[in-house]
Automatic annotation (TrEMBL):
Catalytic activity: (2R)-3-phosphoglycerate + NAD(+) = 3-phosphooxypyruvate + NADH + H(+); (R)-2-hydroxyglutarate + NAD(+) = 2-oxoglutarate + NADH + H(+)
Span within the parent record: 1 to 302 of 387
Assigned EC number: 1.1.1.399, 1.1.1.95
Top-level enzyme category: oxidoreductase
UniProt family annotation: Belongs to the D-isomer specific 2-hydroxyacid dehydrogenase family.
The keyword NAD is assigned to this record: yes
Name this protein carries in UniProt: D-3-phosphoglycerate dehydrogenase
Length: 302
């Protein structure tokens, strides 16, 4: 009987796919296969019987890939399974960066008991005025499952979309997102765009890529969206760029002690894939990968 451990609970519709030849165990060390969402696994001792880890999500930066490679542990993820959920939140981020929804909402909440609130609204409008996204230039860095979807919706919202991805050929980028101007140098995204959204994995090569050198190339008042990973942005440089007005808004799904609470930063608690649909899709895909591996030796999405 194969032993399965869930480091983080995953959606029930995934767990239901395990038949009675599988046993779900609490003991991580006893497991043949582990399911994980975003729990950090770097400090965990990987037992010799562990065969596979399936990450119910796209990013695998919480998994010690080097140790897994040494021990021959197969690592799966679920690319694309939550792309729609993340894409929709990115679009919300685009609007949050453009219209002062938070300011307006907070004002109404604070004044909710004022019986003259309806009369005072007129005076507030100018405080919370924003800008429209139609006609603006959107730069999408990374044209994978999420980036390509964001690019397409940006286009449908009337934006001029620039896409950059060193690993996607011009032809593939065109197929993925036919409305994207495929840019060969990321610098051109920095120079041209009013909004820049990053959709690349957390790697040594992408760490801190949004930094003072990148800001120096950007337009004044650029708006930055980060729904990919915290480490892509150099926080000190971002704080400086916000203070100088180079960056007008930074919307990030990754709060940390440095950036949360800084003016013109909107932080969410990593909600990108927190939808019922995305959680279900990831759970089903992760469990199918484990089952297919244990029963047939197949290795997909590893
Ligand atoms: C992912 O890597 O799939 C997303 O960041 C969402 C998540 O981690 O839950």
């Amino acid at each position: 009987m194969a032993k399965i451990n869930c480091l983080n609970p995953i959606a029930a519709c995934g767990m239901d796919l395990f038949n009675d030849t599988y046993e779900v165990v609490d003991d991580f060390a006893a497991a043949d296969a582990v399911l994980v969402r975003s729990a950090a696994m770097h400090d965990l001792e990987l037992s010799d019987n562990l065969l596979a880890i399936a990450r119910a999500g796209a990013g695998v930066n919480n998994i010690p890939l080097d140790k897994c490679a040494e021990k021959g542990i197969v690592v799966f993820n679920t690319p694309g399974a939550n792309a729609n959920g993340v894409k929709e939140l990115v679009i919300a981020g685009l609007l949050l960066a453009s219209r002062d929804l938070m300011g307006g909402y907070n004002w109404v909440k604070e004044n909710a008991s004022d019986e003259n609130i309806a009369k005072t609204v007129e005076k507030q409008k100018k405080h919370y005025a924003g800008c429209e996204i139609m006609g603006k230039k959107l730069g999408v860095i990374g044209l994978g499952a999420i980036g390509a979807k964001v690019a397409n919706i940006g286009f449908r919202l009337g934006m001029e979309v620039y896409g950059y991805d060193p690993y996607v050929s011009v032809d593939a980028a065109w197929r993925l997102s036919s409305h994207v101007k495929h840019i060969k140098n990321v610098e051109d995204i920095y120079k041209e765009c009013d909004y820049i959204t990053v959709h690349v994995p957390a790697l040594d090569s992408t760490k801190g890529m949004i930094n003072k050198d990148a800001f120096a190339m950007m337009k004044d008042g650029v708006k930055i969206l980060n729904f990919a990973r915290d480490i892509l942005v150099n926080d000190d440089d971002m704080i400086e760029a916000l203070a100088s007005g180079k960056v007008a808004k930074y919307v990030t799904d990754f709060p940390n002690a440095k950036i949360a609470g800084v003016d013109n930063v909107i932080t969410l608690p990593h909600l990108g894939a927190s939808t019922e649909e995305s959680e279900d899709n990831c759970a089903v895909m992760a469990v199918k990968e484990i089952v297919d591996f244990i029963e047939n030796g197949n290795i997909k999405n590893s």
